[in-house]
Structures are given as structure tokens and as C-alpha cells.
Design a protein that fits this description.
Number of domains: 4
Helix content: 40-55%
CATH class of the largest domain: Alpha Beta
Largest sheet: 7 strands, mixed
Number of helices: 16
CATH topology of the largest domain: Aspartate Aminotransferase, domain 2
Shape: globular
Radius of gyration: 23 Å
Distance between the termini: 17 Å
Number of strands: 15
Length: 472
């Protein structure tokens, strides 16, 4: 079929290509023409790129410009066929991975650890993303707690704002994840409430730098002291902020210590594929000591196929992603990361100032690169409905209702994007006032949440979407 829209084109927003392109429900008897395939795929990519390249999408796309992306794709192509599990055949990959880990550790002040105790050295592995980094750390704490402390029913304490990957880890590995609510008005976890939940089964505690809903940094210094006092692990989730906060701090912003400078921090995750500006599919998990990293590894010595061992949950991994990550870090250098951080913060600061001038809205906490806000005057979901008509894509929050916009490089390369964002937001508030007393389209999703029955309906709806997406 032609790549042009037809009268039969699907109205389903999840499957816009139905009616435009051929559906393959089985492997074709004869392969299709290469040029035709490239034309079809190019059209899809072009149309989808147009949705975010003007800087109107929150987060999602973390790359340092088209030229940088093209460079990384060139690097990827040279190593795309390599499998990192074959370390004897691909020594270049492990050279690059060890250097990625070392560069990340130094950026997050791993050298402070060695200075305090020469026997300790921050180490880690490369993973497929923030979720796997978190999962690997939680697996390590589970096994460490069992081996070192005899804990058979491990518990890990986390702020309710921490990433759901921690809950996923609990489900996968049989760890009880203990949630601690955050308090208004700063939406920060109370260290005292963390202490109240520590017991003989506690393996570790968790903090974020910064968390996804609001971009806020938990009281990590206090949590570090708690971890030391109780001889438990302390994981800092820097998947979102790990590759940006160091440079924001270097620029002079008031950023509290969030990394291995805190003596109680025993592990930390940081996503290279976010503000590290690498290709999607890489993250770094770091440990204060190699002894703890060892609990992450998996091995089985008596398999008929030979001794099997893997450092992460993945077996085969693409060498292309490793090479592109290494190239991104080495090419950009400190200067490149500082310039990117400055550009991002210039936009974020203008957006935050704009929110503060709108009396109906209030910022949540003291955000940095994520601008999160709520309202006690208007329904922010109505505001979101309006912003969608102007092409903006916010991230919608709940409990309480709020919105956030995560600033990435696309916003920095679009002149006047922050000014236009503020102008449209002001109109969005006016729109929300007119719509007072009616149900917002956005609220039709989140309005079900907040109670057990409602959350179950939302869950069933989301699972139904997955079933729909993976069907022809």
C-alpha cells in the first residue's frame, strides 16, 4: 500500500498506520523490496519525529541534537553485530564499558570513596536502562542481606515518589517494598518516618536524585546517616538526574550532596541514555564496594553447555549501544555537558519564573530541570486539555493532581519555546476557569484513581491497552 493517508486510515491513535501500510501477520513468502521498506520506515520516523522536534514534548527524547545523534548512529553501526557476552572476541567493548563505568563514577565523586578508604573503589556495570539498574541493585541487596545478615524475608524502604522499578524489583525478587509517604508542602520524605519502618528485616533504604514526579532531591544526607547508623544499604536513584545534577551544581545552582560524597551511599544508578545523551538502552549501576557488586552477578557452574555467568539480567547485549555511549561521553566531554546543562537550566528557569507569576498555580518543592506544579484554584487536568490543543505534551501526575514538564535539549534548540510555553499556560488557566465544574478529558483517566476500585479499573484499562498494542 502507499504511504499516503487513505479513506480507510485507522482512527485508532495507537495504530495510525492501519489502512496505510501492509500488515504482516506472517513472514512473507518472498521478502519485500529494500527501497520500499526504507521508504515506509522513513515516513513513519519523519512523522513521529515531527511530534517532538519543536520542543513541545516533556522529557522522552534525550539527545544532544541531530548532528550528535547521527554521529552516535555511525558509531553504533560499527559495533551493532557484536555481542558483549563474548568478551574474548570483543575486547574493545569491555575497554569501553570499563571506561564508561569509571567516568561515571568519577563524575559522581567515586574518588572520594577511595580517598577515605583505599580498600574501597566505586565499581559497577552497564545495563539496558534505569529499570535494570534498579532491579540489579535490589537483587544485590537481597542476596547481600541473606548472606551477610541472615535475612530471609528482606524489606527495602522507599519514598512513595520513588520509581515503580523498585516495586517491580520487589515483585520479581520477593522483596517487601515498604513505602513512606511524602509530606506537603515540600513533598519530601520524612527521615523520621523512614527510621520508624526499619526492623530486623531491613536490607536497604532508597532515595531519589531527583524523583520522576517532581524532579526533587530527597533528604539524602539524613538518609545516609540513617543507613550508617543501622548498617543497611542505601541506594540513590540518579537515573533521571545523575548525568545532569553534577553539571548544574558546577554552574552554581544550590544542589545538596547526592552522590558518593555521602558516606552512607552504597549504590547509585545513573542513566547514560537520558542526560548522558547516549542512544536509548544504556544505564550505569555503581556500587561503593566490589563486594556488593558481586551479589549482582549470576553464574551456574555445572550446566552441560559450560560454565555460564552474566554480570546483569541480560545475556546477549549489543556492542553498538556500548560503543555509542562511550563515544557520546568522550565526544561531549565536561565542556559539552556543562553547555547542555546551562542551556537546559536557562529554559527551566524561565518556565519556573512563568509559573510563579500565575497566581492560580504553585510550584511543587524546589524543582531544577523538571517544572512541576499544582493548583488549588483550577483543575490542572483542564489546563492539560488546553495545552494539548496547542501541541504540548505534559506528564500528568496524581495524588495530588499535578502536571510536570521535563526540560531536555529539544527545548533549548527551539527559539522562544519557554516564552510560548508560559503564554499558553496562562491561557490554559483561563480555559480551566471556564471549565470549572465539568470533567476534564485528562481526568477521565486519573479520575478513577485514588481508591481501590478506581485503581483496579485503571489497571485493567492499561493492561487492555497492552493487549491491544500487541495485536494486529
Amino acid at each position: 500500500m502507499s504511504g499516503q493517508p487513505s479513506e480507510n486510515q485507522s482512527a485508532d491513535p495507537f495504530k495510525p498506520y492501519t489502512g496505510r501500510y501492509q500488515i504482516h501477520d506472517q513472514i512473507p513468502v518472498k521478502g519485500r523490496d529494500k527501497a520500499d521498506l526504507l521508504k515506509e520506515l522513513s515516513t513513519m520516523a519523519m512523522e513521529e519525529n515531527l511530534r517532538w522536534q519543536d520542543g513541545r514534548v516533556s522529557g522522552t527524547f534525550y539527545h544532544a541534537g541531530e548532528e550528535h545523534l547521527a554521529f552516535l548512529n555511525q558509531v553504533f553501526a560499527r559495533f551493532s553485530h557484536m555481542n558483549t557476552i563474548q568478551f574474548d572476541l570483543c575486547p574493545s567493548i569491555f575497554k569501553m564499558e570499563s571506561e564508561i563505568i569509571s567516568m561515571t563514577a568519577k563524575m559522581l565523586h567515586g574518588d572520594v570513596v577511595s580517598a577515605l578508604n583505599p580498600q574501597d573503589k566505586v565499581c559497577g556495570t552497564l545495563t539496558s536502562g534505569g529499570t535494570e539498574s534498579i532491579i540489579m541493585a535490589m537483587k544485590a541487596y537481597r542476596d547481600w542481606a541473606k548472606a551477610e545478615k541472615g535475612i530471609q524475608n528482606p524489606e527495602i524502604i522507599m519514598p512513595h515518589t520513588a520509581h515503580p522499578a523498585f516495586d517491580k524489583s520487589g515483585e520479581y525478587f520477593g522483596i517487601r517494598m515498604v513505602h513512606v509517604p511524602v509530606s506537603e508542602p515540600d513533598f519530601s520524605v520524612d527521615p523520621g518516618m523512614v527510621v520508624e519502618r526499619i526492623n530486623e528485616n531491613t536490607a536497604a533504604i532508597v532515595g531519589s536524585a531527583g524523583n520522576y514526579p517532581y524532579g526533587l532531591i530527597d533528604p539524602l544526607k539524613a538518609l545516609s546517616e540513617i543507613a550508617l547508623q543501622h548498617d543497611i544499604g542505601f541506594h540513590v536513584d540518579g537515573c533521571l538526574g545523575g548525568f545532569l545534577l553534577p553539571w548544574i551544581e558546577r554552574l552554581g545552582y544550590a544542589v545538596p550532596p547526592f552522590d558518593f560524597r555521602l558516606p552512607g551511599v552504597t549504590s547509585m544508578s545513573a542513566d547514560t541514555h537520558k542526560y548522558g545523551f547516549a542512544l536509548k538502552g544504556t544505564s550505569v549501576i555503581l556500587y561503593r564496594q566490589n563486594k556488593l557488586r558481586r551479589y549482582q552477578y549470576f553464574n551456574i557452574p555445572d550446566w552441560p553447555g559450560g560454565l555460564y555467568a552474566s554480570p546483569t539480567s541480560a545475556g546477549s547485549r549489543s556492542g553498538g549501544l556500548t560503543a555509542a555511549t562511550w563515544a557520546s561521553m568522550v565526544y561531549l566531554g565536561e565542556t559539552g555537558y556543562l553547555e547542555a546543562a546551562r542551556a537546559i537550566m536557562d529554559v527551566a528557569d524561565e518556565m519556573k519564573a512563568g509559573v510563579e507569576k500565575i497566581p492560580e498555580l504553585s510550584l511543587i518543592g524546589e524543582p531544577t530541570f523538571i517544572v512541576s506544579f499544582r493548583s488549588e484554584v483550577v483543575d490542572v487536568y483542564h489546563v492539560n486539555d488546553f495545552m494539548k490543543t496547542r501541541g504540548w505534551r505534559f506528564n500528568c501526575l496524581q495524588l495530588p493532581p499535578a502536571l510536570h514538564f521535563c526540560v531536555t535539549m529539544p527545548q533549548t534548540s527551539t527559539p522562544g519555546v519557554a516564552k510560548k510555553w508560559v503564554q499558553d499556560l496562562e491561557e490554559g488557566v483561563v480555559y480551566a476557569k471556564r471549565k470549572a465544574g465539568t470533567t476534564a478529558e485528562t481526568a477521565a483517566i486519573y479520575g478513577l484513581a485514588g481508591n481501590r476500585e478506581g485503581n483496579q479499573q485503571v489497571t485493567e484499562m492499561v493492561l487492555g491497552v497492552f493487549d491491544h498494542l500487541y495485536s494486529i
